[in-house]
Design goal:
By secondary structure, the protein is α+β, with helices and mostly antiparallel strands. It is built from nine helices and eleven strands. Helix 7 packs across helix 9. The N and C termini lie far apart (68 Å).
Length: 268
């Protein structure tokens, strides 16, 4: 079912009414493992990028990847990067350090990891065939692809999300929606909330889709907006190893720096 809701259009259309009762939807999706795995049997990756199979070298040699990383940022996008992207410092940092400290920390993590964990961060996104993705970050464990954090461009967003729903069903999750628009004279009050999550999975691969929206408008006040949307496909067995390793190394770095600080103070 297409649930593409445009707040401004809704306000324009419905503000002519004197009052509108709030619209509420609360759907829960709870298939059994057997039902879920059967529907998602073909879930393997994103196009030619296959979870648990595609290697780091194969991505670097891929024609779509090479085309999307041409130009002044080519060398930057073609090497492991644990500073930016989905698995950059926002993912593994343990305190509010500045960028300079986090760059030093990422270099230390890369060194200690000894090639076990890598990330390719595409700062300009990627085009796969005719499909444009504004976000496409790839995580590797022992040079094998274990996760992709990605999201399509706005013009194909609905097509991609609806494709997953049509192909794999609703998966496991929920869809919660609340919308209230009230007009009294020339005064308008508008509220819109959306909380949607779908998890599609088979025995080896899982795909999580999260959509959180919030919209608020009243006379004499600035519009409020909060929008969070993401897609993450990953190996159910190997991605947790990647997560644990990068976060463990981050904690170890902090402990080493704390010990160095104590030693320096004790010299005084």
């Amino acid at each position: 079912m297409k649930r593409i809701l445009f707040a401004l259009v809704a306000i324009t259309v419905l503000s002519c009414a004197e009052q509108n009762k709030p619209e509420t939807i609360n759907e829960i999706f709870e298939p059994t493992d057997q039902e879920l795995f059967a529907e998602c049997e073909d879930l393997k990756g994103v196009s030619q990028f296959l979870i648990g199979k595609t290697t780091f070298k194969a991505v670097l040699n891929d024609k779509d990847f090479k085309k999307s990383t041409e130009g002044s940022y080519s060398s930057y996008n073609r090497q492991s990067n644990l500073v930016n992207g989905h698995w950059g410092y926002d993912f593994w940092k343990t305190k509010n350090d500045g960028l300079g400290i986090n760059i030093d920390k990422s270099k230390w993590i890369e060194k200690e990891a000894k090639g076990r964990i890598k990330q390719l961060y595409l700062s300009t996104g990627i085009t796969i065939g005719e499909l444009e993705f504004k976000k496409f970050d790839l995580a590797f464990l022992n040079d094998t692809l274990v996760a992709i954090s990605f999201y399509p461009n706005d013009k194909i967003e609905a097509d991609v999300i609806n494709h997953y729903k049509d192909k794999y069903g609703n998966g496991r999750g929920h869809y919660k929606y609340y919308n209230s628009i009230e007009t009294v004279g020339n005064d308008i009050k508008a509220t819109k909330k959306t909380d949607e999550k779908h998890s599609w999975a088979n025995e080896e691969v899982a795909l999580d889709y999260v959509k959180n929206e919030y919209f608020h408008m009243e006379p004499g006040k600035s519009s409020t907006g909060f929008f969070e949307k993401s897609l993450l496909i990953y190996s159910k067995n190997r991605y947790p190893v990647f997560e644990n390793l990068i976060k463990t190394l981050s904690n170890q770095y902090d402990e080493l720096k704390q010990d160095d600080k104590k030693k320096a103070i004790n010299v005084l």
